Amino acid sequence: MRNIKLVIEYDGTNYAGWQLQPNGVTVQQVMEEALTTLLHEPVRLHGSGRTDAGVHARGMVACFTTYRTIPLRAFSDGLNSLLPPDIAVRESAEVTPDFHPRYAATGKLYRYTIHAGRRRSPLSRLYAWHLRGELDLDAMRRAALFMVGEHDFAALRGAGCAAKTTVRRVDGIAIEKQGELVTIDVRGSGFLRHMVRNMVGTLVEVGQGRRVADSIPALLAAGERGGAGATAPACGLCLVEVYY
């Protein structure tokens, strides 16, 4: 039995997220259908996590097992010939039987992109949150420092989150600007449902002067979702890399 690891890139605009669900087409569903066509056998993919509807990925990792002896290259080039233009396999590798993309992961990197311009941009509308007006990036960076480390992030957890504990470790947050695009890179051991998008929504309030940077510790200590900022739109979020 072979255990095949895939690194997958996708534009999540037209999908109801990564994970299989009954109320919409998902990336996992499309991937499994293409693999079934390629291998002539049912295939179940195990992903490194979930992404919500509209969220993108550059480095989603998934694994499946098969007895087929086709060349490894077929799991990238061959599979890509069967996939739609908004999904592609970037890498394929054969890994040990005990490797699981979720449980073996040591961390993840997400990037959130904001288009901070006076006028909307049709070319970035599917991949960035358009906000008019300047953001105080220094204030946002000060606020972000309070989110780094191991904390109870209940205040930044989205509704419907089934995690047994809301304690997570954030290893770093980097906020940069190039032209009208602001990127917020968040690295951590793992994230709660909507956690990164809620972090961004809260940091944006700081950048707009509607919340002070020093208020973050009290927000986290209170643990109340209503005290944090609004959930940033899904279109600006991208899973960049999963670490092992």
TrEMBL record:
Highest taxon listed in the record's lineage: Bacteria
Active site (UniProt): D52
Enzyme class: isomerase
Gene Ontology molecular-function annotations: tRNA pseudouridine(38-40) synthase activity
InterPro entries assigned to the protein according to its UniProt record, in alphabetical order: PsdUridine_synth_cat_dom_sf, PsdUridine_synth_TruA, PsdUridine_synth_TruA_a/b_dom, PsdUridine_synth_TruA_C, TruA/RsuA/RluB/E/F_N
Binding site for substrate: Y110
UniProt keywords, alphabetically: Isomerase, tRNA processing
Reactions catalysed, as given in the entry: uridine(38/39/40) in tRNA = pseudouridine(38/39/40) in tRNA
All residue ranges annotated as the Pseudouridine synthase I TruA alpha/beta domain in the record: 8-103, 147-244
E.C. number(s) listed in UniProt: 5.4.99.12
Classification via PANTHER family: PSEUDOURIDYLATE SYNTHASE (PTHR11142), TRNA PSEUDOURIDINE SYNTHASE-LIKE 1 (PTHR11142:SF0)
Family listed: Belongs to the tRNA pseudouridine synthase TruA family.
Subunit structure as annotated in this protein's UniProt entry: Homodimer.
Function text: Formation of pseudouridine at positions 38, 39 and 40 in the anticodon stem and loop of transfer RNAs.
Protein name as it appears in the record: tRNA pseudouridine synthase A
